[in-house]
Amino acid sequence: MNQSDFRPFDGPQPIYVSLPFSIWWPEQHSPSVVVYEDGRIIYTKWFKEKGTEIGHRYEAVLSKPDLATIYALMEPIQKLKKLKSHYRLTNVPTDGPESRIYVHSKNGPKRTQIEGFHSRLKRDELAYSKTDAPVIGAFFNMYHYVENLQPAQGKPWTPKYIKLLFRKERKPEPEFTLPPRAPAKSRKVVNWPKEWPSFASPQVSRQENGYTLFLDAAQWAKLRPVPPISNDALIRIQGKIYEVLQDEVYPREPEWYQAFGIVE
């Protein structure tokens, strides 16, 4: 297979995406919800495990009324003009939760980032300037509706591909020191098995600061858990040492990555 034949992002058009954002976790780009034009939704379902809430990805096909409601909620957003890249609720701390929201209809994409938006936010908790009212109101109506969809027929989502991001080890920026990361000398170095896919694979893309390796999810399930991939481990592959992050691959995800200027 040639690299040009490998198309991990194929899929239907996304019409709504929300990505939680925190300055303490700037490298986390996983969406909380993605809705596609064919009615498919990939969303986060929360479970309490050992006293901690853990989010798991689920998928379902929305009912026609739910999908129609989403399209109706798009209309006020599409009418907005001179949309700013960032808004802020006036009653939240400067390091509070944020959400990046991407909406795509027949009129094209709209996107912004709103500081203070989170999945449990209630309408009576909104506080914003008068000039921002039309934007905050339109985006909150969409955000609140979609974030609270929990389809009864949902089932755990298994992505077609997962990606492993091999990045040259970087020193953390001073303002992003929570949670603290162990120094490189004390971190475990794991050798990448020679029989595993290498950087010569057609399923690899190269970036300035490393490589991204795409693996079929079924293949990855067979390879795990040796060697263990974790934020505390370093991987030695082809004679060099990298940090490795693991993430799911969403259909058409480059669209919202490009919209928000996200570079992995």
Verbal overview:
It is built from four helices and 14 strands. The longest helix is centred in the N-terminal third of the chain and has 15 residues, at 64-78. The model is unreliable at 173-178 (pLDDT under 50). It is α+β, with helices and mostly antiparallel strands and 264 residues long. The strands form two sheets. Strands 5-7-6-1-2-3-4-8 form an eight-stranded mixed β-sheet, sandwiched between helices. The chain has a six-stranded mixed β-sheet with strand order 10-13-14-9-12-11. It has two domains: 3-155, 2-Layer Sandwich (Mago nashi protein); 161-248, no CATH class. The protein is 17% helix and 34% strand.
CATH domain class name of the largest domain: Alpha Beta
How many strand units?
14
Nearest-integer average pLDDT: 84
CATH topology type of the largest domain: Mago nashi protein
The SSE string, one letter per element, is EEEEHEEEHEEEEEHEEH
- The tally of helices reads 4
Q: Could you say which overall geometry the principal axes of the C-alpha atoms support? A: globular
Low-confidence stretches: 173-178
How much helix, percentage-wise, in residues? 10-25%
Cα end-to-end separation: 25 Å
* CATH A-level architecture of the largest domain: 2-Layer Sandwich
Brief rundown of the structure:
The chain is of the alpha+beta class. It is built from four helices and 14 strands. It has helices spanning 64-78, 133-147, 217-223, 253-260; strands spanning 14-21, 33-36, 40-49, 52-61, 86-88, 98-105, 108-115, 155-156, 161-167, 188-191, 204-207, 210-216, 233-237, 240-248.
